[in-house]
Inverse folding.
């Protein structure tokens, strides 16, 4: 097999360039002593963080190798085909303050299109169903007043945190001793407001309010610029999506890196010594001056380290699980909900499936919806069959959109929770006590090992934009050390 500079065959490089999804055979057992397997920096993970770090270091004149466990690039972004259209079955939306992702999309000529938000939204929370327009949730007046006061209080507390270093806030210990649920029970009296917060927490974190450290929740708000920015469509994190998928940006970045990206190469061990670092995979080893790990903590914990990691770093990786999520997209011969005056957005605590949104773009023929099983419903449904999940999704959709919802022309889903190299999504979610006890290990390098990934971002933690920012940050951290 012909090997190129970094020990990857021409065939593999071309496969990456063509689609980003193919893995060719690789000469197993190859040694880090081979010249092609020496590089300035090895990057673990070809998600947006890893690809950005590689791009930046290359631009700074450094050699890189990106080792990716999966058989494709993109990490928590992934393309799928729905009724002939390429869509995102992982990360999908972008908001106006997510400037690093928007800049990357521009660089690679990928078109941003507004999320469809005309018509009325549906809210079905705490036994009351209503239709409403715009971004202000359709609660009864007194509940809305309480909800608004709670949002203002949360944003006020969040403004005292500099993400991701939430453990440095003056009130960190008190906030980290609570969960979002315990804060709600003490500070929000009305059941409708509580129920809406629970649904929003599920929609944003893919886990339940009782699982989320209140300090982490506030830090997340701080990193996004407030709760409204997280939950809004217009002007918020769901403002726009990408014609033909955001994943294609990752694919184009990988194509540019060519044979420096190695797929199907799960890193099993990282060994450090005085002179450098050896990174071991099932497809052989690479030798480098520094290594950047972009896998989220729960995945980084599956790598063996020699010498072992400091106790605090190892403890952190045991305590940051990912949320549980199943993403589903459906195509219809027409967007009948638009004809009913509906936007497609439904927030409900009555259904297993939800929230859901219209996901039409100018490329969509007919209509399309996208939605999620988040948190406890994702746990309940991950081990069921695709046919069972489909039946449940259609039942839930029919509750609000009528019989027409039972007849999609196409259905695709991704059970992120069962994906061995991702273990869930959208983001890692620490419970109480973790950030104050172990948080300082999130970004602190361990010898020649540096950490990146959306979980380490200073803005838009949990989002693609945060992943890109973390890739840029770690590249500037590592470059002067080479
Ligand atoms: C269903 C879903 C919907 C989402 N929606 C949005 C959205 O609309 N907008 C938004 O901005 N964000 C969204 N997100 C979140 C967003 O996708 C992530 O924040 C972002 O992609 C994370 O990028 P990353 O590079 O930090 O990590 P990842 O993408 O997780 O990349 C880490 C990579 O490391 C690899 N890896 C793990 N272990 C190893 C190993 N041992 N050896 C080698 N490689 C390894 C993994 O395979 C992965 O490719 C969503 C996520 C999901 C799952």
């Amino acid at each position: 097999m012909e090997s190129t500079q970094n020990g990857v065959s021409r065939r593999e490089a071309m496969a990456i360039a063509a689609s980003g999804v193919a893995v060719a055979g690789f000469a197993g057992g190859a040694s880090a002593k081979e010249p092609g397997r020496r590089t300035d920096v090895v990057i673990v993970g070809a998600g947006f963080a890893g690809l950005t770090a590689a791009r930046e270091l290359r631009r700074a004149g450094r050699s890189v190798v990106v080792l990716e466990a999966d058989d494709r690039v993109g990490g928590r972004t992934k393309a799928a085909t729905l009724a002939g259209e390429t869509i995102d079955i992982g990360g999908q939306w972008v908001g106006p303050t997510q400037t690093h992702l928007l800049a990357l999309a521009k660089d690679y000529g990928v078109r941003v299109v507004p999320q469809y938000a005309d018509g009325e939204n549906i809210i079905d929370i705490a036994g009351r169903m209503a239709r409403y327009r715009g971004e202000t949730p359709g609660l009864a007046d007194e509940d809305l007043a309480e909800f608004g006061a709670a949002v203002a209080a949360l944003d006020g507390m969040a403004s005292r945190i500099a993400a991701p270093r939430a453990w440095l806030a003056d009130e960190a210990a008190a906030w980290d001793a609570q969960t979002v649920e315990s804060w709600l029970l003490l500070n929000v009296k009305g059941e409708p407001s509580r129920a809406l917060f629970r649904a929003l927490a599920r929609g944003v974190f893919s886990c339940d309010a009782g699982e989320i450290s209140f300090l982490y929740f506030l830090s997340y708000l701080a990193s996004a610029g407030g709760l409204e920015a997280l939950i809004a469509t217009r002007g918020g994190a769901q403002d726009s999506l990408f014609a033909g998928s955001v994943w294609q940006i990752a694919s184009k970045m990988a194509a540019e890196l060519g044979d420096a990206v190695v797929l199907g190469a799960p890193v099993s061990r990282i060994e450090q010594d005085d002179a450098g670092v050896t990174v071991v995979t099932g497809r052989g080893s690479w030798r480098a001056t520094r290594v950047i790990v972009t896998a989220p903590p729960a995945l980084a914990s599956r790598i063996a380290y020699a010498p072992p990691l400091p106790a605090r770093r190892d403890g952190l990786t045991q305590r940051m699980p990912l949320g549980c999520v199943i993403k589903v997209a459906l195509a219809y011969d027409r967007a009948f909900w638009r004809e009913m005056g509906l936007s497609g957005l439904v927030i409900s605590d009555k259904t297993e499936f939800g929230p859901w949104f219209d996901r039409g773009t100018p490329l969509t023929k007919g209509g399309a919806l996208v939605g999620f099983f988040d948190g406890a419903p994702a746990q309940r449904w991950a081990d069921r069959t695709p046919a069972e999940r489909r039946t449940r999704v259609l039942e839930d959709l029919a509750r609000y959109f009528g019989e027409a919802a039972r007849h999609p022309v196409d259905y695709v889903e991704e059970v992120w929770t069962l994906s061995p190299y991702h273990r869930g999504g959208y983001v890692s979610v620490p419970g109480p006590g973790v950030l104050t006890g172990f948080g300082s290990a999130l970004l602190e390098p361990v010898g020649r090992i540096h950490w990146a990934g959306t979980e380490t971002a200073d803005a838009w933690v949990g989002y693609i934009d945060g992943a890109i920012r973390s890739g840029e940050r770690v590249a500037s951290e590592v470059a002067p050390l080479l």
Observations:
- Residues 22 and 121 are 40 Å apart (CA to CA).
